Prior knowledge:
Strand content: 35-45%
CATH architecture of the largest domain: 3-Layer(aba) Sandwich
Bound molecules: flavin-adenine dinucleotide, nicotinamide-adenine-dinucleotide
CATH superfamily of the largest domain: Nucleotide-binding domain of ferredoxin-NADP reductase (FNR) module
Shape: globular
Number of domains: 4
Distance between the termini: 12 Å
Structural class: alpha+beta
Amino acid sequence: QVPLKPGRSLMDWIRLTKSGKDLTGLKGRLIEVTEDELSKHNKKEDCWICIRGFVYNVTPYMEYHPGGEDELMKAAGADGTDLFDQVHRWVNYESMLKECLVGRMAVKPVAALKGLFTCSHKILGLVNNWNEVYFLKCSPNFVSFLPCVSGIFWHVTESYDWFQTDSLITVVIYTKQKDMNADLVIVDCQDKQLRGEIIMDDHSYLVNIDLDHAVSEDVAVNIAEKVGKVEIILNKKDNVHWKMLGQPCEGHNTFIKRTDRGLFYRKCKLVSKTEVTHDTKLFCLMLPKGTHLRVPTGQHVYLKHIIAGTEVVKPYTPVLPFLPLDFQEPPCHDGVHIYLMIKIYSHGLFTQALDHLQIGDYISVSNPEGSFKKSQVQTSEDLLLLAGGTGFTPMVKLLNFALTEVSCLRTVKLIFFNKTENDILWRNQLEQLALKDERFEVQFILSQPSKDWVGKQGKISSSLLSEFVKRSRRDSKVLICICGPVPFTEQGVQYLKDLGYSQEEIHAFTA
Ligand code: FAD
Ligand code: NAD
């Protein structure tokens, strides 16, 4: 992030896009852009970028880009898809840059094929000499060309099947993954549309079907963990015999890298909004009936909302409704509600819109994302959590998981940095937890304390960390998790490295 000039916020950009000004310089015409043409627009004052086959004139956007002009210029006059995916795949550029759309990249004719390769018995991939790959997909009743961006290679190592009774349809997916669990299966069934995504490390397998007949909203998911079999059970609305499951939709029966799959959203209802501190609220969202989704510990979701006619997306990390003190599997894992602890900024674009949502309103919630793996904790003896402000949110599920499910942990310590006492999230609950469980300790450090504060003060520093971040034994295995404002996280990681902690012992939560 770089500081933007006044008048260059996201809201200012949205206003400019709505002003009717010609932002492409083409007076609304859409053109086909050749590689040669694209490469000519490579200067700050004339900059075109290609993302997923679409070309945008980003010259007017330069000063509004939160990552700075230099970052955008890295893709000037070229294909910026990879760069974009690395930095902010979740940003909905289609909506943000729609007024900057110049047109599509010209695709060289398929006759100019450079190579031909086979992905599996079912799918043939045809590569042309430019940036696009076509797949010829053959099955008894379905033959078509599916265009997709280069670099995506489909392996159909997984497969699915289906069977029916008078009242049920069961879709069975054989993942062959031994540690399959409910966190890895995301199902959405609405109207006649069934979408089931199975996460397998950094890949995902998708079943996406327009069902032949209507089903009710109740969906059950059964998992045979040891053999990796997943069953999605649907209830027929009418007890008719189905001749087929339905028609395949985009991405059906594909196994591709998760980063190559677009984010999927479903609309969730706001059911409650409660105060946590003077500026932070706990939002409770309800998943639709036909959705099976659990957000794993350490992962976040994206919320999408239309603000002034533009889709805006921001990441948030689900928490629990409270910190359970009895170390049982919390009853709040009901699979229906998602709790988000969100700080409302007085000038915040998205959080102001969230704050204005009424109970019963809907907001789009994405599938979970994030690189944290529970196994990182499962082998640790000491867990140290460094949180700044709402950087506390990933620590909530992590704390609960560590104290309820990780028996080898000897100590769990939260070092919580805030501006003032009034900003401390769930202080009471944290203090109670520390009283209840002797493995857990909490330390509050304030950067703008009042005169009455007798506790620690300051910002993250080498000396504060050397005082509080310690192994309980000389050779104990430690995991240090850090989350907060970007400079806090970056400085913290550097200080930890300076103190001798290795990369493997540190996990930084980022987008
Ligand atoms: P903006 O309009 O972007 O700005 C609001 C105010 O904050 C302005 O005053 C601006 O100057 C300032 N500001 C802008 N960007 C930053 C920044 N990066 N750091 C500090 N100040 C900034 N927030 C939560 O409250 N709860 C969460 O659970 C949560 N989870 C997150 C998970 C991830 C992976 C990431 C990357 C962020 C998370 N955030 C969370 C932050 C959230 O995504 C938004 O950035 C935040 O809600 C502000 O959005 P906004 O549009 O209201 O603010
Ligand atoms: P804040 O401004 O209230 O600051 C909280 C504390 O962080 C401060 O008291 C200070 O100790 C420290 N801090 C703040 N700015 C610092 C700086 N420049 N250098 C060193 N230390 C600094 O924090 P907030 O408004 O609650 O913001 C929380 C941040 O955490 C946001 O930027 C949000 O995006 C981020 N966040 C990230 C994730 C994630 O998973 N990546 C999750 C939740 C929140």
